[in-house]
Amino acid sequence: MDLGEKRILISLLTAEFLETDKGTDLILTHQGVYLSGPSGLTPPMLEGGWRGLLDSLQTELTR
User: N or C: which end of the chain has fewer CB within 10 A?
Assistant: First the structure.
């Protein structure tokens, strides 16, 4: 991930889709190297972003 001309994150995301009795569970594993330093991008910020994206996806899929 870049911010302007500066690289701030290198990451690998693995998505697992598991069939359940009620539908499908999604397990996301995000592994990253944070290059932005202590005042930049943090794991909690990334988690918040992913939660927002997944909430939006769930809303779309349950319409």
Answer: C
